[in-house]
């Protein structure tokens, strides 16, 4: 079975416009972050790609619709959110529930996100491999977490044999 990479949604794979209101799938304009297509295309060859989001106002089909609008949906095998887990991201329980649904050990699952408190620290606590997408937060991240400055850096860090 392929290892899994969980990606955060807003500002990790898609631009989260703070001025936009409502569900992202309904926004007039949506866009993928830089290098999202190339990164997901490459990593999906060796990993299952799933989204783990804290979005509580969007259902799974609405999240999928937003990804379809930017043509990232072809690389994504599924979505985890409040609707199908019954809990928001930001605690170890969120990631424990994902591991249970995947029926996989934590060391076969990685989390990529831009928020240290919601994406990275709870994933570390659950035993996942973690990658903090960070360019301007100067807080110290856990020693087990790789800090990446751009999404495409994951290609050589996570799956160097695919290059």
Can you walk me through this structure?
It is a single chain. This protein is an alpha/beta fold. The chain has 6 helices and 6 strands, in the order βαβαβααβαββα. It has helices spanning 36-43, 60-69, 82-85, 92-102, 116-125, 153-158; strands spanning 4-7, 48-52, 78-80, 109-113, 129-133, 145-148. A 6-stranded parallel β-sheet has the order 3-2-1-4-5-6, with helices on both faces. It is globular. The relative contact order is 0.19.
Q: Give the number of helices.
A: 6
Mean residue pLDDT: 93
H/E element order: EHEHEHHEHEEH
Radius of gyration: 15 Å
Strand content: 15-25%
Total number of strands:
6
Name the shape in a single word: globular
Main beta-sheet annotation: 6 strands, parallel
Instruction: Measure the end-to-end span.
Output: 21 Å
| Helical residues, percent | 25-40%
What is the SS-derived class? alpha/beta
Segments where pLDDT lies below 50 for 5+ residues? none
Strand arrangement within the widest β-sheet reads 3-2-1-4-5-6
């Amino acid at each position: 079975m392929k290892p899994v990479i969980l990606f955060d949604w807003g500002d990790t794979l898609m631009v989260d416009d703070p001025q936009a209101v409502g569900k992202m799938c309904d926004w007039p304009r949506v866009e993928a972050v830089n290098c999202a297509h190339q990164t997901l295309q490459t990593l999906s060859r060796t990993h299952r790609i799933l989204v783990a989001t804290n979005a509580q106002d969007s259902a799974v089909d609405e999240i999928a619709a937003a990804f379809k609008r930017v043509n990232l949906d072809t690389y994504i095998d599924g979505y985890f959110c409040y609707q199908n887990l019954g809990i928001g991201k930001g605690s170890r329980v969120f990631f424990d529930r994902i591991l249970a649904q995947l029926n996989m050990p934590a060391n076969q699952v990685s989390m990529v996100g831009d928020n240290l408190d919601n994406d990275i620290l709870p994933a570390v606590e659950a035993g996942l491999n973690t990658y903090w997408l960070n360019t301007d937060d100067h807080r110290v991240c856990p020693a087990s977490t790789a800090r990446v400055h751009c999404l495409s850096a994951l290609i050589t860090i996570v799956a160097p044999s695919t290059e």
